[in-house]
Design a protein that fits this description.
Radius of gyration: 17 Å
CATH architecture: Orthogonal Bundle
InterPro entries: GPP34-like, GPP34-like_sf
Order of helices and strands: HHEEHHHEEHHHHH
Number of domains: 1
Number of strands: 4
Protein name: GPP34 family phosphoprotein
Subcellular location: Golgi apparatus membrane
Strand order of the largest sheet: 1-2
Mean pLDDT: 93
Shape: globular
Organism: Streptomyces mooreae
CATH class: Mainly Alpha
Keywords: Golgi apparatus, Lipid-binding, Membrane
Strand content: 5-15%
Helix content: 55-70%
Low-confidence stretches: 81-86
CATH topology: yeast vps74-n-term truncation variant fold
Largest sheet: 2 strands, antiparallel
Amino acid sequence: MTEPPLTLPEELLLLALDPVSGRPLNHGAYLRYGLAGAALADLEGAGRITVEGRDRIVVTNPLPLGDPVLDGALAALPEPAKRRRGGTARRWVRGAGRPVQELCLRGLEERGALRRETRRALGLFPYERFPAGPVDLAGPARERFAAALGAGFPDRRSRLLAALASATDLDRRLLPGSEYRTVRREMKRWTREIWTVHAVERAVRQDKEAASNAGS
């Protein structure tokens, strides 16, 4: 039986998790925002949503797609009557990041790509890690990213993934060093041009500004 293709948020999550420790390579909150933005991008590509005024999400087709991650994200989008208060993409990625992440984790765990391990900090406080499982989906995901990099990120999906990596500060972990400075600059430019990713970039920037103000 052929494995169903990975959704964009699932692929981003596999790129972001260290396969040994199961910890994200970037900031956990930034990753969650990125997963929510990736779900929006997939829903837009499937013709389920569009955008008004560069930031307001509009559901154009509420029918489910048959994928738990994307259908969960679609169901969590604000109803038409509530769009005025809660329909901006930046606000949505901030609120939906955690449930979208959990949907991705469950799906990848069921497919054997991840293992859920519960540990305790100081012997008291439980937390979870997600190292690689017996089915290697992360390796092929990294190979696809490397191939897309070599080809200049030629298609919509690869540019979205590259832009999401930049918006969530994952780019320097995937493409470290001065040799990738030019491509990282291009990836950063895409974060401003793609509305679903720009919402992620703005949410991350808001967190950074809040942390900076708290420390000053």
